[in-house]
Design goal:
By secondary structure, the chain is an alpha+beta fold. It contains 17 helices and 21 strands. The longest helix is centred in the middle third of the chain and has 19 residues. The structure holds 1-O-pyrophosphono-5-O-phosphono-alpha-D-ribofuranose, glutamine and magnesium ion. Its cofactor is Mg(2+).
């Protein structure tokens, strides 16, 4: 769930790309990059770290041009190294700079095809570099000096046939324009925006609409599943559905945790969806624990706040800020190693003891994945003097890996996998634990747009809309478990 942005402007775009990346930072904290085209050349700067650390005045001033793309990375493939920071670049055909949010599930066979059939060298372990080369190959075999939208759309049609997985992508086609496309199932989000300026209309494409709010762009619409949009350097927009007939399945975890609440995805307000998650969870608590005795509902900052506030209101129990978040510590879940994640929970969240002392409290989180946060938080609540500590998750138990752009590769690391709710309760140390039902989570999102009939719920249901090769889950567990990553870092 990286963040991506592309802008076709009528004046310099680097600072707008930078600003957009800072509001998409919650989607990826590991690396960031910007590529622009200054009329003659590609300008590219990228590196490891937060957006504010990767760029300085000097690197920004070199990023000249009225058209460009940006990326902030949360790795789901390959390493966390700077070589895999995005955008990636290939010089042929035309010169392509590419940024990708998502994850492919047939990377290895594509990598082999690239090498053996298409004679292309892939230099990293990144699936995004593979995807860029598939696009480059398909453009190459149709290329001519004068690029046409039909050629580009035919190439993307082939990419959709070859690449399986979740992918929302922006590509800078040097000397020509910006190409954006979204996988045939529409798993990862991608929105189109525009703004009128004194010098003409400008377009932008981004992972989340919140990027448009800060840039003063108007959200026009979501890019459709299997659609490609091409915006030429002189501001003409072309689009085509290049894949049809696949089940539209936006990732439900965007609504649970990944996206900012002030974003709209698929015409659904993430904020309102989270409120509805809280309401549904309250109904379940009232059904199953009518004599709950809860004296305060306490969110685990940041993401659960919205759901917890609605839950408290529906229960008629005070909503209290029992944990203060250190605003200088980033998101824990998207950190690459378990040791770092465990340490950062305590660095990040500190209890306000008086909200716990001699009280029965309900702690609310948006989700429980590895249990890193919840286990420590329950202990902190007890240390702060709580009488009873109940725990509620606004999402159902996460029991299966996510393979479409969220780094949850190993079943063995998921606290709910192979455990019953009472067993998880005991492991986390809660007096009782309650999870949202999947049907209620689906309802909470669908209520915002009843045209959405299906979602990618794979981490809750184990159903993978693209299908998976038999050995795939075993392979990613071996390659991407915390222990595999730690072993890689130590060499
Ligand atoms: O069970 P776990 O493996 O701990 O993962 C789940 C937790 O991680 C996320 O928080 P995070 O700190 O990443 O971000 P937030 O500040 O947006 O809530 C999420 O909101 C849960 O609190
Ligand atoms: N989270 C993502 O979208 C990751 C993109 C890509 N798979 C990478 O690892 O860089
Ligand atoms: Mg959290």
């Amino acid at each position: 769930m990286c963040g991506i942005i592309g802008i076709v402007g009528t004046s310099q775009v680097a600072s707008a790309l930078y600003d957009a990346l800072t509001v998409l930072q919650h989607r990826g904290q590991d690396a960031a990059g910007i590529a622009t085209e200054d009329g003659a050349r590609l300008r590219l700067h990228k590196g490891k770290g937060l957006v504010r650390d990767v760029f300085n005045q000097e690197s920004m001033s070199a990023l000249r041009g009225n058209i460009g793309i940006g990326h902030c990375r949360y790795p789901t493939a390959g390493s966390e190294g700077s070589a895999e920071a995005q955008p990636f670049y290939v010089n042929s055909p035309y010169g392509l700079a590419f940024a990708h949010n998502g994850n492919l599930v047939n990377t290895e066979s594509l990598r082999r095809e690239m090498f053996e059939d298409d004679l292309r060298h892939i230099n990293t372990d990144s699936d995004s570099e593979v995807l860029l080369n598939v696009l480059a190959h398909e453009l190459q075999v149709r290329s001519s000096m004068a690029v046409s939208p039909d050629q580009v759309f035919d190439a993307v049609t082939r990419v959709f046939k070859r690449a399986r997985g979740g992918y929302a992508c922006v590509t800078l086609v040097l000397g020509y324009g910006l190409l954006a496309f979204r996988d045939p199932n529409g798993i990862r989000p991608l929105v189109l925006g525009e703004r009128e300026t004194a010098t003409g209309k400008e377009y932008a494409v981004a992972s989340e609409s919140v990027a448009f709010d800060v840039l003063g762009f108007k959200r026009v619409r979501d890019i459709e599943p299997g659609e490609a949009v091409l915006i030429t350097r002189d501001g003409q927009l072309f689009s085509r559905r290049c894949a049809e007939g696949e089940v539209h399945s936006p990732c439900i975890f965007e609504y649970v945790y990944l996206a900012r609440p002030d974003s709209m995805i698929e015409d659904v307000s993430v904020y309102k969806a989270r409120l509805r998650m809280g309401e549904k969870l309250a109904e379940k608590i009232l059904r199953e624990r009518p004599d709950h005795g809860i004296e305060a509902v306490i969110p685990i900052p940041d993401t659960s706040r919205t759901a917890a506030s609605a839950l408290a209101e529906a229960l008629g129990v005070p909503f209290r800020e029992g944990f203060v978040k250190n605003r200088y510590v980033g998101r824990t879940f998207i950190m690459p190693g378990q040791e770092e994640r465990v340490k950062s929970v305590r660095r990040k969240l500190n209890p306000v003891s008086l909200e716990f002392r001699r009280k029965n409290v309900l702690l609310v989180d948006d989700s429980i994945v590895r249990g890193t946060t919840s286990k420590q938080i329950i202990q902190m609540a007890r240390e702060a003097g709580a009488r009873k500590v109940f725990f509620a998750s606004a999402a159902p138990p996460v029991c299966y890996p996510n393979v479409y752009g969220i780094d949850m590769p190993a079943v063995s690391e998921l606290v709910a996998a192979g455990r019953t709710v009472p067993e998880i309760e005991q492991y986390l140390g809660a007096d009782w634990l309650i999870y949202q039902d999947l049907k209620d989570l689906v309802w909470a999102v669908q209520d915002g747009n009843e045209d959405l009939k299906h979602f990618d719920t794979s981490c809750f249901s184990g159903e993978y809309v693209t299908g998976l090769d038999d050995s795939y889950l075993r392979q990613i567990e071996q390659a991407r478990s915390d222990s595999a990553k730690a072993a890689r870092r130590s060499v």
